[in-house]
């Protein structure tokens, strides 16, 4: 069953928000949004983009949109790759906590735990897993996807099964990729959404994941990857993009 898009007027209104270049709203049969995907220019904080989306939806259409269904992709004019900013609010600072004066450019990861090393330290400590193979087989109306990853000298494999129709395959590929990284993550991950979006002249794979993080609870992550010929490859890479911080932490 294909995703429903029953709110073209809302999509048009979202595109009028300064800084938003494209918008796609997925709805349920009741026309209520279940997913909102936004392509925005860099410069405005992702949390502010999400608030703008919520404000327009409420003011013009009387729709109360949960911030957790809004994913923001920020793409610079000259950038060759997408930068995905997860819309989830970071945990509140503890009383008396002071900012780190050695934080470099001042940017902060909303999912970083206390005492977590910065990106440079993480790159020295761990190698991000690389996609090695994707195998798709269909039989009897069922699709079986196997994803192979490698991290250094270690190999990891994940398999997922689902309906054989092409519309279901992005989600099955995402689930197989999650299964492949399960041993590395050590925490439960669910695929909330995995789909291919037409953004301008490009096709982009976007995946939204729900991760159960110890002491923090549920965290929602979003990753994207440009389609470079193979759509299944892009879906798998979008999962890894969403989980990179967790995989190298």
Give an overview in words.
- The protein starts with 7 loop residues before the first helix and ends with a helix.
- Helix 4 packs parallel to helix 5.
- The chain folds into two domains: 8-80, ANL, C-terminal domain (GMP Synthetase, Chain A, domain 3); 128-248, 2-Layer Sandwich (Double Stranded RNA Binding Domain), CATH 3.30.160.
- The protein contains five helices and ten strands.
- It is α+β, with helices and mostly antiparallel strands and 249 residues long.
Oligomer: single chain
The low-confidence runs, each spanning 5 or more residues with pLDDT under 50, are 77-126
Strand content: 25-35%
Largest sheet: 4 strands, mixed
DSSP, total strands: 10
**Secondary-structure element sequence?**
HEEHEEHEEEHEEEH
Q: CATH superfamily assignment of the largest domain?
A: Alpha-isopropylmalate synthase LeuA, regulatory domain
- Based on CA atoms alone, the radius of gyration comes out at 19 Å
Cα(first) to Cα(last) distance is 37 Å
Instruction: Give the overall shape, derived from the CA principal axes.
Output: globular
């Amino acid at each position: 069953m294909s995703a429903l898009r029953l709110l073209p007027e809302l999509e048009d209104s979202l595109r009028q928000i300064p800084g938003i270049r494209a918008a796609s709203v997925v709805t349920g049969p009741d026309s209520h949004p279940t997913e909102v995907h936004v392509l925005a220019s860099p410069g405005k904080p992702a949390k502010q983009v999400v608030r703008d989306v919520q404000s327009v939806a409420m003011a013009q259409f009387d729709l109360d949109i949960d911030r957790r269904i809004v994913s923001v992709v920020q793409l610079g004019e000259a950038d060759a790759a997408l930068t995905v900013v997860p819309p989830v609010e970071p945990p509140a600072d503890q009383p008396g906590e002071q900012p780190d004066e050695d934080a470099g450019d001042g940017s902060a990861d909303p999912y970083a735990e206390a005492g977590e090393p910065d990106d440079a330290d993480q790159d020295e400590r761990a190698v991000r897993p690389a996609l090695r193979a994707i195998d798709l087989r269909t039989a009897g109306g069922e699709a079986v996807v196997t994803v192979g990853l490698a991290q250094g000298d270690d190999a990891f494999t994940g398999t997922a099964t689902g309906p054989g129709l092409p519309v279901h395959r992005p989600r099955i590929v995402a689930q197989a990729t999650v299964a492949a990284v399960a041993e590395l993550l050590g925490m439960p991950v669910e695929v909330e959404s995995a789909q291919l979006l037409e953004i301008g002249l490009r096709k982009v794979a976007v995946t939204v994941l729900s991760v159960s993080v110890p002491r923090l609870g549920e965290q929602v992550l979003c990753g994207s990857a440009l389609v470079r010929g193979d759509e299944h490859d892009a879906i798998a890479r979008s999962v890894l993009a969403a989980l990179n911080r967790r995989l190298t932490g």
